[in-house]
Design goal:
The chain is 52% helix and 6% strand. It has 511 residues and is an alpha/beta fold.
Length: 511
């Protein structure tokens, strides 16, 4: 009898295992169906862990953040992920429909590395979603009975529709899951708004990163272009409006002689033994990228990179000192000539550079030349876009600045030549305020600048003394371009008997 019960018990056990397997199999089928029907790629939400949590949330340009705490081994989390990603694709990534508003992230609490992080937010069930300003998550946490916290628990986000409805209630928006890029988009009509201008700092970072990616992708660093890239990187190290980019370019300069020695023959050689150069992120590796904010056009092919690059060049022109004006002019012209991918554009820009007959002695003169050059480019493009119908209807090319932004910049119209008469003192004042003061305002507001002593010490050295620490050959090249840089090169050369770099810059690698 006992033997019969044993067989019966074994049969029931097997039946239970088979049922569980069948149930799990059916769940996997359902999961596949959800993924297939949703059609959403599961890479929109940014994966965070304890090592990059603070950095990503501190540096994002988004106004709000959602952090999902989950456990990868829990079946319900696998069911929920497609819904979460369906909402995330609206706000995250290069094809975001509504970029710069919400950064949607995920933290896997099943990983031991994240245990303390999940404990700080009192995660008691999965998935658990939090909402708040990104900087409020940095170094912070959450308690169930905590009062007056800027971080809130999303209590109704079990499906994509419910989560988006919850978001719409907070923002007073009407976003829909079917929204497509550049459709139903409320593009800023008043680009003089200080917050919009301040957000251009992220586009400047995007343009810098994109330019460097293009250079590497097309193997544009060659013996003939090496020096011009070094000079432009020196300029970015000293005067880029983003500290992240200043840090990244200085780190690249430290390694430049090793990556691209003065006697290297072909760029292909680097694919074999110097492939690590492709992993260099000149403006930071943890910051989510892939969308334009201030420079976003109403069509895919308009604005974006070209706008971001112009903002970068203007911001550099109003941050330099008088003694650096000619060096900045030469470095910028050579960089565009050697590394801008549009052949017609770079040739046209370089012809305008070649038309300058005397060196610049004042930073003001260079800033006004760049402004005038940009307007000439806009005048040419206005005619081409009008004839071809390729312009952006919401952002047509125009003479800058428009009168509504700077009425004091306009003196009148020269009736003989039908040209605007400018008050150049007022124009320079406008450029300085727009591309220097306002552009970096968001950095100060969000405390993105930071206070790392080692980084500040190096930056103070670079900015205060115009001291740009570079390979010896590059320093000698600068000596011929600028007296200030020449004096520095001589001083630096006397301190260095070998082709090493200033030891304090190595501290950047540990920041």
């Amino acid at each position: 009898m006992s033997g019969m019960y044993s067989y019966l018990g074994l049969f029931l056990c097997l039946l239970s295992v088979c049922s569980a397997a069948t149930s799990f199999s059916s769940r996997r089928v359902i999961l596949r169906e959800v993924n297939d029907n949703g059609g959403d790629h599961a890479d929109y939400a940014v994966e965070l862990n304890v090592t990059n949590f603070d950095a990503v949330l501190k540096d994002t340009p988004a106004t709000y953040a959602i952090v999902e705490f989950f456990a990868h081994w829990l079946v319900i989390d696998h069911f929920y992920q497609p819904y979460y990603e369906k909402v995330a694709r609206l706000f995250n990534g290069p094809d975001a429909v509504h970029p710069g508003i919400i950064l949607m992230t995920r933290v896997d609490c099943a990983l031991k590395i994240n245990t303390k992080l999940c404990d700080k937010f009192s995660v008691g069930h999965y998935p658990m979603l939090f909402w708040g300003p990104p900087t409020k998550f940095v170094g912070g946490g959450w308690e169930p009975k905590q009062e007056k916290s800027s971080i809130r628990v999303i209590d109704d986000g079990r499906t994509a529709d419910r989560l988006l409805n919850w978001i719409n209630k907070q923002l007073g928006s009407t976003y829909g899951l079917d929204d497509q890029k550049f459709e139903n988009e409320h593009l800023p009509s008043n680009i003089s708004d200080s917050e919009q201008v301040a957000r251009a700092i992220y586009d400047v970072e995007e343009a810098t990163s994109t330019a460097f990616d293009i250079i590497l992708e097309h193997k544009m660093i060659k013996p003939g272009t090496r020096a011009s890239l070094i000079r432009f990187l020196q300029l970015l190290t000293a005067h880029h409006p983003s500290r992240r980019c200043r840090k990244g370019t200085s780190e690249l300069l430290v390694s430049f002689d090793d990556l691209y020695p003065a006697d290297f023959e072909t760029p292909n050689r680097l694919d074999d033994d110097k492939g690590s150069v492709k992993n260099i992120k000149i403006c930071g590796k943890d910051v989510p990228r892939g969308y334009w904010m201030f420079c976003r056009g109403s069509k895919n092919e308009t604005r974006g990179f070209s706008c971001g690059l112009w903002v970068l060049l203007h911001s550099l022109s109003v941050r330099i000192e008088d003694g650096e004006s000619q060096f900045t002019f030469s470095a910028t012209c050579d960089f565009v000539h050697d590394f801008f991918i549009c052949e017609e554009c770079r040739q046209h820009f370089y012809r305008m550079c070649s038309s300058v007959s005397s060196p610049f002695n004042k930073a003001r003169d260079y800033a006004l030349w760049l402004w005038s050059t940009h307007n000439k480019v806009n005048e040419r493009l206005m005619k081409e876009e009008a004839s071809l119908g390729t312009g952006d209807p919401k952002f047509p090319k125009t003479i800058w600045p428009p009168k509504q932004l700077c009425p004091s910049c306009y003196l009148g119209i020269d009736q003989k030549n039908n040209k605007i008469e400018w008050n150049q003192d007022e124009v320079f004042r406008f450029l300085t305020n727009y591309y220097r003061n306002t552009l970096t305002a968001l950095y100060k507001d969000k405390s993105i600048v930071g206070n790392d002593e080692a980084e500040v010490a190096v930056e103070d050295l670079i900015v205060a003394n115009n001291a740009i620490v570079v390979p010896l050959g590059a320093a000698l090249a600068i000596a011929f371009a600028s007296c200030a840089f020449g004096a520095l090169a001589c001083y630096w050369r006397s301190r260095q008997k070998s082709r090493k770099y200033f030891h304090r810059l190595y501290s950047l690698k540990t920041i």
